[in-house]
Amino acid sequence: MLKILIIGGTGNISSSVSRLAVEKGYSVTVLNRGRRETIEGAEHLYADVYDRDSMEKALKGRQWDVVADFIAFGKEDAERDISIFSGRINQFIFISSASCYSKRLPVSSPITESMALSNPYSPYAQNKIAAERAFMKAFDDEGFPITIVRPSHTYSTRLIVPIGDGGEYTIIDRIRKGLPVVSPGDGTSLWTVTHSDDFAKGFVGLFALQKAVGNAYHITSDETLTWDGIYMEMGRAIGQEPRIVHAPSCIIEREDPRARANLIGDKMWSAVFDNSKIKAAVPGFTCTIPFSIGIRRTIAWFEKNEKIINPQTNAIIDGVIKRMKRAWG
């Protein structure tokens, strides 16, 4: 029986991975600070990954076949994981991000794993790239058994939004109330959305796969939607047609400095992915949850939990709309 350690394990993406690994019959251990719900059928260890002594105490005398770290973000995190797990595991999976791809380059879609990694706008992407390079150096120099996975916009307990945070309910609240929402550009750029339960199929399929060591994979749906289309599906899910206002990303950035990383560094560019590499590695992998179904599950989750309405996000959206009204005269 495969022994799997998942660091994090209870988040937007990792919960689906943890549950599927348990369902597959693997011996699953989840390590985190214990601040979220537990995963039924998994062993739970509690430690702070940023406290080396805490980690060493929790892991003392233990070995796993596969370790997946969902909360490593930069070079220092990579170096910590390399130091802790070298010689103790058969595979280490680092969760990077598709935001690392250089979407600004004049290349044709779809995106493949060989595409250059560069994102001068997003510190998050820059840190992920630095971590990837540290892991690959350890693979080249020491044989550290790294596999890199790059999710794109993956959702379950987070919404797909171009403005604000996916952990908020703000956009759905605005649509419900008939308030306008902002779509970047003219709303027609293509964006790939993937439900976390679909993502988990490809991810768990990589466990203990020897040919995956030293390789990088993105795992996404083959479904692409426009930003207007994403809003329209949200509206259909709650029975309220959204009022969409289009605005250039540079105008959105003036109201929200975070848009430099989130939009100009990522979401304003079309992102369509070639998934042939993960499909070759994990035969039978396919995504079966269309956004029209997945978004209803996500909204239902929010309805059962805390619905955060962020006044700052509302102010940003209202500010963008005011700017566009002035531009329209």
Report on the structure:
With 329 residues, the protein is of the alpha/beta class. It has two domains: 3-154 and 193-219, Rossmann fold (3-Layer(aba) Sandwich), CATH 3.40.50; 159-191 and 226-269 and 291-328. It is 40% helix and 17% strand. The strands form three sheets. A seven-stranded parallel beta sheet has the order 3-2-1-4-5-6-10, sandwiched between helices. A three-stranded mixed beta sheet has the order 7-9-11. β1 (3-7), α1 (14-23) and β2 form a beta-alpha-beta unit. α1 (14-23) crosses α6, α8 packs antiparallel against α9 (259-267) and α8 packs across α12 (311-328). The longest helix is centred in the middle third of the chain and has 20 residues, at 123-142. The mean pLDDT is 94.
Topology:
Elements: E1 3-7, H1 14-23, E2 27-32, E3 43-46, H2 52-59, E4 66-69, H3 75-85, E5 91-95, H4 123-142, E6 146-151, E7 153-155, H5 170-176, E8 180-184, E9 190-195, H6 196-205, E10 216-219, E11 224-226, H7 227-238, E12 243-247, H8 249-255, H9 259-267, H10 276-281, H11 291-304, H12 311-328
Parallel strand pairs: 1-2, 1-4, 2-3, 4-5, 5-6, 6-10, 7-9, 8-12
Antiparallel strand pairs: 9-11
Helix pairs in contact: 1-6, 3-4, 7-11, 8-9, 8-12
